[in-house]
Design goal:
The protein has 367 residues and is α/β, with parallel strands linked by helices. The protein has a single domain, classed as Metal-dependent hydrolases (TIM Barrel, Alpha-Beta Barrel), CATH 3.20.20.140. It is built from 18 helices and 8 strands. It has helices at residues 5-15, 23-35, 51-55, 60-63, 77-88, 94-111, 122-125, 127-131, 141-158, 176-191, 218-229, 245-255, 281-286, 298-304, 316-319, 323-334, 337-350, 355-358, and strands at 38-40, 113-120, 163-169, 204-209, 234-239, 259-262, 277-279, 310-311. The longest helix has 18 residues, at 94-111. The chain is globular, with a radius of gyration of 19 Å. The two termini are 27 Å apart. It binds zinc ion.
Length: 367
């Protein structure tokens, strides 16, 4: 397959400063990654389906503007969030969530991503939609998760060699009363067998924290996380996605997450949450949360030092990337993509939040 223009331009830009692999070698590696059975531990379900899913659902008024998936690269996180909100308006009924989950699993199958721990954003379609008057269709938090799970169960039944577990985003900007709604929803979900697979393993395994990092309610988030931990959920947060390294450090030290995504901004102060970190370099470059040259992205230093990081694609529909393209970027710059793939995939497998589920798929990952 032809590498996307945006990706080719990024590589061409690197080539003006450093030696990078030629296009033929990058394409060969890309195809190899696509063919490999692999796992992904950071991606957002809503932005990891084909554009065809949203094309038919977006209103005509939005179609007049620039489609959300044609906007990358973004000027900043804010303009990315605007595209995210525009995209989310395509979801109007509970059955859209079911169809989205099915479409997500289908895209996993096409990419040979056997196991995924995926973020979902039920809050965006419930109280956030209401709070910012984004769209007239307001859903109950728990009803959204329930619809995602119905779709997921249908799709996983069709593809028994693929598995997906969910991480419910509780959002950096959520308020006390909103977190109460989230807690009640998560409590019901943890108690209901319908939200588990046939072996009794829960389909929602963790609670996330996404959007712009803010310390407005850090201690409240901490209390909230302690209470959801008691329900059996792990904690997986977005932090250190650019911005002040001290903010990132304080977030991690206060919230004590099981996994962090991005995390690179701490490196200027010698702080890295390396025990379970997922990095998404192309995402950081496309949203300009990392503002240096692409080849200077901290992911390269982490790999050189052997930190046990994993790689994720974040929001492939909006960013024009994919897991295979993230790896292809690392290969283009280092020439060591095959080793990086083995290393980071192993790191990811050893650090999944639901190891008992991954074990069922072990046979695909035996070296
Ligand atoms: Zn993310």
């Amino acid at each position: 397959m032809e590498l996307p223009i945006l990706f080719q331009e990024l590589i061409a830009d690197c080539r003006t400063r450093i030696r990078v692999l030629d296009r033929y070698e990058i394409e060969r590696f890309y195809n190899w990654v696509q063919s490999q059975p692999k796992i992904e531990t950071h991606v957002h379900l809503e932005a990891a389906v084909d554009e065809s899913f949203y094309e038919s659902r977006l209103s005509t008024q939005l179609r007049g503007g620039l489609l959300p998936w044609k906007r990358a690269p973004f000027q900043n996180l804010r303009s990315f969030i605007e595209a995210w909100v525009a995209l989310s308006k395509g979801v109007r009924t509970l059955s859209d969530f079911e169809a989205m989950a099915e479409s997500f699993v289908e895209s996993r199958r096409v990419q040979n991503i056997r196991y995924t721990e995926a973020y979902i954003s039920p809050a965006d379609f419930s109280f956030i939609r209401k709070r910012f008057s984004i769209s007239p269709e307001i859903f109950e938090f728990e009803a959204v998760i329930s619809a995602y799970i119905r779709g997921l169960k249908n799709a996983l039944k069709m593809y028994p060699d693929i598995d997906v577990r969910l991480i419910a985003d509780s959002l950096w900007i959520s308020k006390d009363d909103e977190r109460t709604v989230i807690f009640e929803g998560l409590k019901n979900i943890s108690l209901n067998r319908d939200y588990s697979d046939s072996q009794g393993h829960p389909l929602v395994v963790a609670v996330g924290l996404g959007g712009s990092e803010t310390h407005e309610s850090l201690n409240e988030h901490k209390d909230f996380f302690n209470s959801v931990r008691n329900l059996g959920y792990k904690i997986d947060i977005h932090s250190g996605e650019g911005g002040d390294p001290k903010v990132h450090r304080l977030s991690v030290e206060t919230l004590k997450p099981d996994r962090v995504v991005h995390g690179f901004s701490g490196m200027t102060e010698n702080f890295l949450f390396s025990k379970n970190l997922v990095m998404c370099p192309l995402s950081n470059l496309m949203i300009k949360t990392f503002q240096g040259q692409p080849e200077e992205h901290p992911v390269f230093e982490c790999l050189k030092k052997g930190y046990p990081i994993a790689i994720g694609s974040d929001d492939p529909l909006l960013l024009g990337n994919s897991l295979a393209l993230e790896y292809s970027f690392l290969h283009a710059v280092t020439g060591e993509g095959y080793d990086i793939f083995e290393f980071t995939q192993k790191n990811a497998r050893e650090r999944v939040l639901a190891p008992q589920v991954l074990r069922r798929l072990d046979k695909y990952f035996r070296c």
